[in-house]
Amino acid sequence: MEPQDPYAHREPEGGSWAAHQEAGGQAPPEEASPESQTWDTFAGGSLAWGDSKQSSSELDVGYLTDQHPQASEVGITDTEAGAQFFGADEEEVWHTREGHGDVLLGGGKMDRNLGKAILSALGFVALAIVCFRIGRWPTLILLILMLILAARELYGALRSVGYKPAVFVGISAVIGLPLAVFWRGAQAFPLGIGLAFIVTCCWYLVGLSPERPIPNIGATLFSVVYLAVLGSFGALLLRESNGVGLFLGAVVATAAYDSFAWAVGKVIGRTQLSKVSPNKTVEGLFGGILGAVLVCWLILGLLKIDPWGENPGSMLHVIVLGAVAAIAATIGDLSESMFKRDFGLKDMGKMIPGHGGVLDRFDGLLFVLPVTWGLALVTGVIEAAPS
After folding, report:
1. Contacts of residue 106, Cβ cutoff 8 Å, sequence gap at least 6
2. How far is CA 87 from each of CA 79, 83, 104, 199, rounded to the nearest angstrom?
3. Number of Cβ within a 10 Å radius of residue 350
4. Distances (CA, A) of 333 to 52, 244, 269
5. Maximum alpha-carbon separation in the chain
6. Nearest CA to 225 among 361, 335, 324, 140?
């Protein structure tokens, strides 16, 4: 016997619907067409299947916007957007906290992402090693390429929440400022930043963008400082005679911190580090710091990589670099998580399989580069330029 459809319209007792109507009964209920059935409300906090002729712009999402004011800012008006916005916080799986890790670590999706992440990381490491071996110029070109791709992601995120930044100015800055710093040193920073501000003002002054100038000038200069200025400290490291070694120290410390923080957080992470990124834990932070110190000691110290491990550096310089870079990388990671949360995004992009976007992968390094240069300057690993 075939199962009965509990929602099928049944004939009334004692005859057909026509006979029932002739006797003064009610007309048969109209059957809702599939086209009229839509997700029409988030009533009571749960999805309700209803018969609605409302457009998606008229749907009741008050439940979401009351509890999450940011939802209305990023245009949460349907279930697909709501699921994207209110899904599991970041698929950053390092620093995993128990309350979130049960979902992310328990299924096959986590394993597939980890495999992609490892392959992507190995590919980039191979490319970086080739550039390091060739010399400073290929490394600088690789750095600028990463900044361009990161800028593309950042401007997409800014536009997604209504800003209209001067993209041409920003892209020109992430290309021009590192080249200027590599050519002229730290004295190129004031001129580069000043020109970026002047050109951005002219952009809105002549009407190339009709939007409000103040918030959009701010968004443009935010991207210039975040990417062009911080990234240009990599060029400042590379312009030294042993610049590849200096730059390598920043990369090794950042990569070691990320790897150990992820592993320790996954195994023993329990204490939340910050509300802006619930998957990061205090245990992961300390594991990452110890890992960065250990790896820097093994690679930069024992192998005597100039100028950290030798000429003129020492083991002490290597250990301090690992600890300081790990703290800077943490601040960089949390800052990017804060930006993504404000944008209503889980990842800045999807360019790197298993990692998300370019900015998701190199957010920590952006903060480590200036700290590395400052540490090398203070400790005498590099000499200050004559005034």
Report:
1. none
2. 11, 5, 12, 39
3. 11
4. 43, 24, 17
5. 105
6. 335
**DSSP codes of every residue in 351-385:** SBTTTBSHHHHHHHHHHHHHHHHHHHHHTTSSPPP
List Cβ neighbours of 308 (8 Å cut-off, separation of 6 or more): 245, 246, 249, 296, 300, 301, 317, 318, 321, 381
Domain ranges of the chain: 93-134+243-382, 135-239
Q: State pLDDT tens for residues 184-198.
A: 999 999 999 999 999
Q: Report the interhelical angle of 358-378 vs 136-160 (nearest 10°).
A: 130
Residues 354, 119 contacting (CB under 8 angstroms): yes
Q: Residue 135: left (phi > 0), alpha (psi -120 to 50), or beta?
A: left
Total count of residues recorded for the chain: 387
Q: pLDDT tens digits, residue range 220-260?
A: 999 999 999 999 999 999 998 888 989 999 999 999 998 88
| CA proximity to 85, closest of 342, 361, 384, 380 | 342
Predicted TM-score (pTM) of this structure: 0.70
Question: Which residues are CB-neighbours of 159 under 8 A, at least 6 positions away?
Answer: 165
Task: Give residues with Cβ within 8 angstroms of 10, minimum separation 6.
Answer: none
Q: Which amino acid is at 77?
A: T
The three-state DSSP-derived secondary structure of 318-353 is HHHHHHHHHHHHHHHHHHHHHHHHHHCCCCCCCCEC
Give the pLDDT confidence score for residue 324 in this predicted structure.
95
| Predicted local distance difference test score (pLDDT) of residue 235 | 96
252, amino acid identity? V
**Which residues make Cβ contacts (< 8 Å) with residue 367, sequence separation at least 6?**
230, 328, 329, 331, 332, 335
| Separation between Cα atoms, residue 227 and residue 262, nearest integer Å | 25
Alpha-carbon distance of 111 to 372, in angstroms, equals: 34
What ranges in the chain are assigned the alpha helix state H? 17-22, 62-67, 70-73, 79-85, 98-104, 108-134, 136-160, 167-184, 188-205, 213-223, 230-238, 243-268, 282-296, 315-343, 358-378
> Is 50 strand, coil or helix?
strand
